[in-house]
Every structure is written in C-alpha cells, then in structure tokens.
Specification:
single chain; mainly alpha
Length: about 400
C-alpha cells in the first residue's frame, strides 16, 4: 500500500508517543521501589524480581510477535499490545503481595513485546535505508524521555498519593494510544529494499541467517552489555541516592529523571547526527560512534556513583546518560539494515530477546543480591560502568574489523 509523507509522519509521531508511554510504565516501579517494598514486605532482591519477570515475559513473547509481524497486520498487533501493557500497568495498583505484583508486572511484558518488536520494522518500511538512522533516532529519543518521566512522575505521584495511584495514573493513558495505532496506514513490506523473495523464512532458517550476519551479531552483543548497565542503573540509582546520599524519594526521582531526560535526549539526537556525519570519515561509522561514546559514559557513571554533592551527582548522571544514549539510533539502524525486510521483525525480536535475557533481566536482581549479601548497594551498582566498557570493547571490534555497510 502506498503511503503519503503525511501518513509516514503520522506513524512516526504515534509510534514515538507509544515508546514514550512504554518507558514511563517501565520505570514507575523503580521510582517507588521503597514504598511498595515497605507496604508489601519485600527484600531488596524481591523489589527487582518483578522487573525481571516483566523482562523475561517480554523477551519470550518477542519472537512470537516477530514471526506474527512478518505475516499479519502490524498495526493491529501493536494496538493490542499497547492496550495489554497499559491495563497490566494499572493492575499493579491492586497487588496484595509478591505474587500478585509479580504477575501484573509480567503481563506488561506481553504487551510491550508486541509493540517494541514490530515498531522498528514498520518504521523501516516508510523510509529508505539512508534515512532510517534519523527516523529511528527520533523514535528512540522517547526512551530516555519516557524513562525520565517514569522516575519523575513516579516519585511525584508516589509521594503525593501513594505508589498504587502512581501505577494507575501512568498506566491508563496508554489505552488512547492503542486506539491511535489503528489509524496508521501500513506501508508495503520492503518497499525501499532490494527485490527479494516474498517467502517468509522459517525460524530455524532465520536464526541461521542472523548468526551468519556479522554486523547484526556484533551490534547485538554490545547492546547486551550496555543494556545490562542501563537496566541496573535505572532500577537502582534512585534508591542508591535515598539510602547513601540523604535524598528523599522525590528528590532522587527528580534528579535522576531530569538528568536522564536532558542527557538521554541530547545524547540520542547527537549520536544519530554524528553517526551520519562520520560516513566517509571512518569505516563502520555507526559502530565507531557507539564505541567511542561509551567510554566517557562509563567514566561519568563512575563519578555519579562515587560523588556526594547533588550538583556533582546530577552532572555525572547527566553526562553518563548523554554519552550512553548516543548509540541508540546507530545500533538499531545496523540491526534493521543488516537483514532483509522479510525477516526484519524477527531480527528485532531476537535482539530484544538477547539484550534482555543477558542484560536487564538479570542485572537488577544481581545488584540486589550483591547488596543483600554484602550489606552495601555500592558493591553491586559499581558493575554498571564496567559493563559499559565491555559494550564499548565489543563495538570497537566491529568498528575495526567490519567494512562500512552501504545501506547504513
């Protein structure tokens, strides 16, 4: 189906707004962690397990939606997913104990798997390969903004009305976004890609082809390490500030939120622009930008963790977020451009599966377990900058060994 430029812009706006809500809902629990810990009698490790349950369901459901998206209507799958995650977020307000809270948060993963797996594939069919980095940069700007709003709104609503109200207020607006998705005009699959077979490969064949695609494998491997770091920082840093730096819940949430939105927004936009600017100046420019930016991200994360004054902590987390988010558009552009259109949604789904099963599904409970074992949260959270450097090293390998991809 042909789509006008106006229709393409509408799709970008709606899908980006959904990504914003996605990350608001994801990080509200981190902002009100100590509130529901006290009310429901959780340990530190238990406060992170609902996030892990969400991520596990999210990553297990992603391959299903990846295959469904390569065969069925993508906008309908997205609309259903957004409705499910919004209702599940609100349902956490009704939790009476560990398992009811865990189930509600796990169901959020079903809805988000539909949305997050399919949206990059759908957006890629609206634009040619050389414009996808810019479009995906806009789309992924919503991640740091949404995460920041999750911290900030969660802290504000949690302080004012309690943690249950925070889940209700942040969750229910997603139902409006779900209805908006049905108005998207779906583009022709692979309209801007080389002519290829319409046959959708089986999962075993798709996995063999992904495994043999070096840019895809290296992009996802570094993505795993960075997601480990980002997930651990997002889930634990506000709590770290309240316990060890004398901040209130609202202060910690707002400081983390403002630094994340400013740094993440600036970093995502800057990274997308600089990655395109590097074309012709270095081999594999998207890998180059992602690698280089992660080194100062690790340095400033270390500074934020070990500082005491609010100004220095805020500056450290702002700069850590700025440099960390530079990779977002370029790495996801590599992922979608390195595979054919008829398996693009599954390529995204497997990247989601990988970054979560080895990344933020395990980092928050590992950090929590180290805190429980040692009696000091610092011993766990200090792994965050270490994992950033591991991600940088992996992407450095891609930068120095792979030629530039024509399609990026």
């Amino acid at each position: 189906m042909g789509v006008t430029p106006r229709g393409a812009r509408y799709a970008v706006i709606i899908l980006t707004a959904m990504n914003l809500l996605n990350y608001i809902d994801r990080y509200v629990p981190s902002a009100v962690k100590d509130l529901f810990k006290r009310d429901l009698g959780f340990t530190d490790m238990q406060t992170s397990l609902p996030l892990t349950a969400f991520v596990v369901v999210y990553m297990l459901a992603s391959p299903f939606f990846g295959e469904a998206a390569d065969r069925w209507s993508r906008k309908r799958l997205i609309a259903a997913g957004v409705a499910i995650w919004s209702l599940a977020t609100a349902a956490a307000a009704l939790a009476t104990g560990f398992w009811t809270f865990m189930i509600a948060r796990a169901l959020v993963g079903v809805g988000e798997a539909a949305y997050a797996t399919i949206s990059p594939s759908l957006l890629s069919d609206f634009y040619p390969p050389d414009r996808r980095n810019r479009v995906l940069t806009v789309f992924y700007v919503a991640i740091p903004v949404g995460a920041a709003l999750g911290f900030t709104l969660g802290g504000i609503f949690g302080n004012a009305f309690g943690w249950r109200a925070a889940f209700l207020i942040c969750g229910l607006p997603g139902l409006l976004a779900a209805g908006s998705a049905l108005l998207i005009r779906e583009p022709t699959r692979g309209a801007f890609d080389p002519v290829q077979s319409d046959r959708v490969p089986s999962w075993p064949e798709a996995l063999r082809r992904l495994k043999a695609t070096a840019p895809y494998v290296i992009a996802v491997a570094g993505y795993v390490a960075v997601t480990w770091a980002g997930g651990g920082m997002a889930d634990w840093f506000p709590t770290y500030l309240t316990r060890y730096r004398g901040m209130s819940l609202g202060e910690a949430g707002q400081l983390t939120g403002l630094a994340t939105v400013a740094g993440g927004l600036g970093g995502t936009l800057t990274g997308g622009f600089l990655a395109d600017w590097l074309k012709g100046k270095t081999r594999a420019p998207y890998f180059a930008l992602s690698c280089i930016s992660m080194v100062p991200a690790a340095l400033f994360a270390f500074i934020a963790i070990n500082s005491h004054g609010k100004v220095l902590i805020g500056l450290g987390i702002f700069l850590a977020q700025f440099f960390m988010w530079c990779y977002n558009g370029p790495i996801n552009a590599i992922i979608v451009n390195s595979v054919p259109a008829n398996m693009r949604a599954r390529a995204v789904s497997m990247s989601i599966f990988s970054i979560h099963v080895l990344g933020d599904a395990i980092s928050p409970p590992i950090i929590g377990a180290i805190s429980d074992r040692t009696g000091n949260l610092l011993h766990g959270i200090i792994l965050v900058p270490v994992m950033m450097l591991i991600g940088a090293a992996i992407w450095a390998y891609g930068w120095r060994t792979l030629p530039s991809l024509e399609r990026t």
